[in-house]
Write a structure and sequence with these properties.
P-loop_NTPase; AAA domain-containing protein; Rossmann fold; alpha/beta; 2 domains; 18% strand; 9 helices; disordered N terminus; globular; two-stranded antiparallel ribbon
Amino acid sequence: MNQYNKPGHYAERPMEIELIRSMSQAPLPAKPGKTPETLPDPPPDPGEAFIIKPAADWLQLGNDQQHDEMLFGEFWHEGELCILFADTNVGKSILAVQIGNSISRGEPMPGFPTKQQPENILYFDFELSTKQFEKRYTSTLHGNYRFAPNFFRVVFNPAANGIHKFASYADYINNALENAIISSRARIIIIDNITCLRSGTDSAASAISLMRNLQALKNKYHLSVLVLAHTPKRNPVKPVSRNDLQGSKMLLNFADSAFAIGESQTINGRRYLKQIKQRSSSQVYGAANVCLCNIIKPYNFLQFEFNGYGTEAHHLMHYTEQYRHNTENCILQLRQQGLSMRQIASETRLSSSTVDRVLKRLAKDYYAGS
């Protein structure tokens, strides 16, 4: 028998092997510069609610991050969850598609800079039918508009039957949104509009829950999100404000920025864009400097055309004696038709308290004159 096959016999290992073996068993020397103070911070613990750092560290972290580029001028920056709100039939969807088209091509709209690198766009369209969408972006003479191949339009699947797998409709929608983001690799998301994704009868609470989940998805996947929302019929005498956001102005607490489309009461067809909230920059387009636009369709693309700047006050309805008289007559006629004060307020774009005051004053004048 060969002596090296005997159990327990290790005496005749070559010197080189013994040297390597002894070196591997020795403690490793510390690498220079790798002290506990210089080791990189561990990733945040997902089980903890808060991340704690010295304020100076947050400043350094901000310095290391790239500057957020504009996606739609000063209105919407990269990395923001932004709300665009307006009354119905004012042009929210038209502008949103135009913004998405601009970003997907890396070509800015005149007057509104955007990043030059084309990006994948997910446009969740819960407003228009396929035929309605087609009519906006085609013409008999010029045919269909050529969208960039990285502009994706998303609609509800009428045959979808997976909702029973989730505890709630909200969970189902959040999972579907995340799946779409992952599969498309899109980092720019446009949702038209938030009302169509709500669940239950409490629309405000449902919308707030959705906004909270959108913020979570934004932070997880480094998204930029534009959410469209309606305003109820508003008083055309008053300037657009955060109080006009339908459901709850609490939605703005979950948004990084917000802007609105106003409809001119003095120039037919004129629209204006006004900043309502901003964090990435100071306010540029407030009441004293709104962006003026018109909706046009050159060739086969329905769009907003930038027409300079102006003051919001110039485009509000002026409160005159004739306006007051017409408003009172309208309220009285609606009341005689049996409408409630809330219904009258909705029809006239006035608050319920204003309608109540007008009706009481009219009743008082009637009895005083009888």
